[in-house]
Specification:
A six-stranded mixed β-sheet has the order 4-5-1-10-7-8, with no helix packed on it. Strands 3-2-6-9 form a four-stranded antiparallel β-sheet, with no helix packed on it. It has no helices and ten strands. It has one domain: Immunoglobulin-like. With about 100 residues, it is mainly beta.
């Protein structure tokens, strides 16, 4: 995707489920029907880093495709495949894999 706001997504994977090959795809859907997928921005032992470029000035929501149980930074469950948290850039989002 071209220009826009960068949203960083931190995925805590303390139990190593993503590292062991479990499917986890992260993207966004904007209010103007644009969509895109996150790109890898590195990782450490148990944290995977992703970046999204969302349309500047548009309401966008994270969309996460996985069979894993995931929660947001407050511990609230995020349903996979649904429009998740609203993201506006530049910003950062943290999710945890259980």
């Amino acid at each position: 995707m071209g220009t826009g706001d960068i949203v960083k997504v931190h995925v805590n994977d303390a139990n190593g489920k993503v590292k062991s090959g479990a499917r986890l795809s992260i993207g966004f859907k904007a209010d103007n029907w644009r969509y895109g997928f996150a790109r890898s921005a590195g990782n450490s032992a148990n944290v995977f880093e992703y970046e999204l470029t969302v349309p500047k000035g548009r309401l966008s929501r994270l969309v996460i495709d996985t069979t894993l149980q995931i929660t947001n930074a407050n511990g609230a469950a995020i349903s996979a495949g649904t429009a998740g948290p609203v993201v506006t850039g530049p910003s950062e989002v943290t999710i945890t894999v259980h």
